[in-house]
Amino acid sequence: MLRSTFIALSTNKPLRRFSERSAVGRRLSSRFVAGMEIDEVMRAALSLQNLGIASTLDALGESVHSAEEAQKHATTYHQLLDGITRHKLTDSNVSLKLTQMGMDLDPSLAESIVRDLTAHAVQANSFVRVDMEGSPYTQATIDLVRRVHSLPGNRGRIGTVIQAYLYRSEADIKTLTADGIRIRLCKGAYKEPAELAFPAKKDVDANYIKLTRQLLTSGIFHGLATHDEAIIRDTKRFVDENKISRDSFEFQMLYGIRRDLQHALVKEGFRMRVYIPFGPEWYPYFMRRLAERPANAIFIAKQFFRN
Ligand code: FDA
After folding, report:
1. How is the chain split among helix, strand and coil, in percent rounded to 5?
2. What is the CA radius of gyration of the chain?
3. Residue 92 has what DSSP assignment?
């Protein structure tokens, strides 16, 4: 009930406009968003690097309404890749959304932006991760990533995300790994119909574990994005039992979520990457985090009134 309320609120335009412009809103968002400016996200990535944690940088924004807006987001991503080089972030990359690059307006615009960013990532010794959005974009995202990955010099420089809640994901992993494409596995954050996605959380969790095994035995470096302690425990056991190197994959978590677990895994010798979002368009992302764990709303409110 609360989950669907927050998901519904995440698309509420007046509330979004009000929140993103208000100082209070920005302060509340700071729990999950590293700031409004590039300098702030760089500082956050450097602090994590000092703790042995890699990063992926996300300039927040979704569903643009003009080609100029898409180009503006593309420019920010080029600045992020320059910043990664300038600040000597040795294991940092970028995560972007296709709708932010104009996918709904003109898919060829989005593809050319992603192609240019991947070429820049190659120069910067970095990597482009194309986040996965709702199911209307699944096939188009996979197809676009495969095309850009197949261009000369791009092998291993662009990857995408697979969502364990979708029935199709096992087949998609087969297709992507056959091309040598790196995958981030997550549970999935959008509202999907029962024809396409497991409605019950326990089935999503079981599929996540099954797909984790598929990824860990593929011989390709993948990211396991979850804060779920039971799944992480199961993964550690599977890796140990099958003598899979701790260097051959990474765990990924979101900025500001389960920092204790992030540090504990690094101490145990696992690789950890944190997804760091920033920028003035933080509202839909923030609401999706509240939807995942409505208790966060109370936690954030308490912190707000304490400060
Ligand atoms: P689950 O929701 O079952 O939570 C397990 C435990 O984690 C909770 O009990 C709680 O302790 C903790 N937790 C989870 N969410 C929390 C929150 N918001 N606040 C506090 N604690 C929380 N989705 C998508 O559709 N497309 C994408 O491209 C991505 N990309 C992505 C990148 C990275 C690095 C991560 C970690 C996640 C994504 N996601 C995503 C989001 C993902 O699909 C999912 O919604 C969240 O990760 C929550 O799922 P968990 O696996 O953490 O499990």
Report:
1. 55, 15, 30
2. 18
3. E
Confidence check: pLDDT of 24 > 80: no
Ligand 1 centre to CA of 272 (Å) is 15
Question: What are residue 298's phi and psi, to 5 degrees?
Answer: -70, -45
- The topology under which CATH files domain 33-277 is TIM Barrel (3.20.20)
Task: Using the mean position of ligand 1's atoms as its centre, give its distance from the Cα of residue 143 in Å.
Answer: 25
Planar angle of CA 56, 220, 277, nearest 5 degrees: 10
- Spatial CA neighbour of 194 closest among 173, 167, 214, 216: 167
Q: What is the DSSP letter of 279?
A: S
Ligand 1 within 6 A of CB of 257: yes
CA of 111 to the centre of ligand 1 (A): 27
Question: Tell me: the pLDDT tens digits for 82-98?
Answer: 999 999 999 999 999 99
- Return the half-sphere exposure (C-beta side, CA atoms, 13 A cut-off) of residue 171: 5
Please, what's the b/e burial string for 82-114 (b: 16 or more CB within 10 A of its CB; e: otherwise)? Answer: ebbeeeebebbbbbbbbbbbbbbbeeebbbebb
User: What residue spans define the domains of the chain?
Assistant: 1-30+282-307, 33-277
187 Cβ closer than 6 Å to some ligand 1 atom: yes
User: pLDDT tens for residues 192-248?
Assistant: 999 999 999 999 999 999 999 999 999 999 999 999 999 999 999 999 999 999 999
Per DSSP, which regions of the chain are E strands?
Answer: 54-59, 92-96, 128-130, 158-163, 183-186, 222-225, 249-254, 272-278
- Amino acid found at 43: R
Is 146 an annotated catalytic residue? no
